[in-house]
Amino acid sequence: MLAYLKxxxxxxxxxxxxxxxxxxxxxxxxxxxxxxxSTLLLLGQVGETVIVYTxxxxxxxxxxxxxxxxxSERQLFNLLQSVTGIGPKLALGLVGTLGIETLVxxxxxxxxxMISQAPGVGAKVAQRIILELKTKMEEFxxxxxxxxxxxxxxxxxxFEEVTEILANLGYTATEIHAALKKAKExxxxxxxxxxxxxxxxxxxxxxxxx
Length: 210
Known about the structure:
Elements: E1 4-13, E2 19-26, E3 29-36, H1 37-42, E4 49-58, E5 63-68, H2 71-80, H3 88-98, H4 100-108, H5 112-115, H6 123-141, H7 156-168, H8 173-185, H9 193-205
Helix pairs in contact: 2-3, 3-4, 4-6, 7-8, 7-9, 8-9
């Protein structure tokens, strides 16, 4: 119905939850959009003109416009809603918390712990996402660029254990994903959670330019 909206940012409201609020002035009409926190932070400042890609959820009592930075984010949002029991707000929370690359690789590597870091996503929901979306995620990953994303190799149980340890230490899903991806690039063996945790902590404490 609406592919995108181009307009001036009027209001940015942080809810403290997985879904924030953005008001966009499009030719003197104010549109209220529900967006992920990461999207709200990166879209621009109040008074700037931006393009926001959209998806509309229609319910008996309300219409909700969801906003995204690009079409890939929107496509993944719609893909998540094909999973039994996942509605638009939970799907937006998943995309916003984990990001496209982290979420795709978590599904492909069956990293349940990583997926469970999104608000409102428990073990059963994470399992269902993996079960119902793994094949579709393989296809989706090929649309993201010239080089398809590859899942982590090694024992997924070890990656899950390391994910949980790092999450308990206060690291975010994005930080954990970056550290585990670096371990994959360096061919760190995934047979030992202890070794992988040591490598991840070194990677996380290293300067960004390293």
